[in-house]
């Protein structure tokens, strides 16, 4: 299991050090949550902060766009140093155009599903993306309870990916901690995002290790 700490729960007054802390703790990716106050009822960070963090880490930057018009901002996030850009299938930008734009910038594209969105919504794009991210909370805030009822959707996606023989990684995001990781792993997730489960743990390195070895 790969683990992507979500900086949403870190100390925002020292983000550079927080990135270093989880990188030293064995993190696989760094998960960056971008919110626009429109697609979700919260505001977070933009390309400026991501650009500032880029020299502080050599890990892949996994940028999760919770914004209504992702296509308008792909260049900005690619320039900032994103390695993976995921955007919501429920957003307003044209999905094919947005995937193509991300690829054209040498970044790995991914699609995200809100809890109410069925697995089938991403089936037409599975050949075109590197990642499918399944939300296991309503997007917008860290520290919410894990939705175990998303696991049938994860299994449906896994089956489809395996039956088509695709290299797509399945990622889950929201409420993942030592208490919920076994269920996530069993359903077939390859990459787990965790915010409070890592940054609010007494020992971030131990929390990362526990998630990597469910
Ligand atoms: C929620 C974000 C998540 C969030 C996860 O909208 O996409 O990445 O930070 O935080 P936890 O692990 O605390 O649920
Ligand atoms: Zn996220």
Structure characterization notes:
- This protein has 214 residues and is α/β, with parallel strands linked by helices.
- It has one domain: Alpha-Beta Barrel (TIM Barrel).
- The protein is built from 8 helices and 8 strands; from the N terminus they run βαβαβαβαββαβαβαα.
- An 8-stranded parallel sheet has the order 1-8-7-6-5-4-3-2.
- Helix 2 (47-53) packs parallel to helix 3.
- The longest helix has 13 residues, at 151-163.
- The N and C termini lie close together (8 Å).
- The site of zinc ion has 6 residues, from strand 2.
Describe the structure in brief:
This protein is α/β, with parallel strands linked by helices.
Strand percentage = 15-25%
CATH superfamily: Aldolase class I
Largest sheet: 8 strands, parallel
- State the total count of DSSP E strands: 8
Which structural class best describes the helix and strand composition? alpha/beta
What's the structural blueprint in terms of helices and strands?
Elements: E1 2-5, H1 15-24, E2 30-35, H2 47-53, E3 61-66, H3 74-80, E4 84-88, H4 95-104, E5 108-113, E6 131-135, H5 151-163, E7 169-173, H6 181-187, E8 191-194, H7 196-199, H8 204-212
Helix pairs in contact: 2-3
Bound molecules: D-xylitol-5-phosphate and zinc ion.
């Amino acid at each position: 299991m790969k683990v992507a700490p979500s900086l949403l729960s870190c100390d925002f007054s020292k983000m550079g050090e927080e990135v270093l802390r989880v990188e030293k703790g064995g993190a696989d990716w760094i998960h960056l949550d971008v919110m626009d106050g429109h697609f979700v009822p919260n505001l977070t960070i933009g390309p400026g902060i991501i650009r500032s963090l880029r020299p502080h880490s050599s890990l892949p930057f996994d940028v999760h766009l919770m914004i209504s018009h992702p296509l308008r901002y792909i260049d900005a996030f690619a320039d900032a140093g994103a390695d993976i850009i995921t955007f919501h299938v429920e957003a307003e930008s044209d999905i094919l155009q947005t995937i193509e734009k991300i690829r054209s910038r040498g970044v790995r594209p991914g699609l995200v599903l809100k809890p109410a969105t069925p697995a089938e919504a991403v089936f037409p794009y599975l050949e075109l993306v590197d990642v499918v991210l399944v939300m296991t909370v309503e997007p917008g805030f860290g520290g919410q309870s894990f939705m175990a009822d998303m696991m049938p959707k994860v299994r449906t996606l896994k089956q489809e990916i395996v039956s088509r023989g695709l290299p797509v990684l399945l990622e889950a995001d929201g409420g993942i901690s030592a208490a919920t990781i076994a269920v996530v792993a069993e359903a077939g997730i390859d990459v787990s995002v965790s915010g409070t489960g890592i940054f609010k743990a007494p020992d971030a390195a131990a929390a990362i290790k526990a998630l990597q070895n469910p």
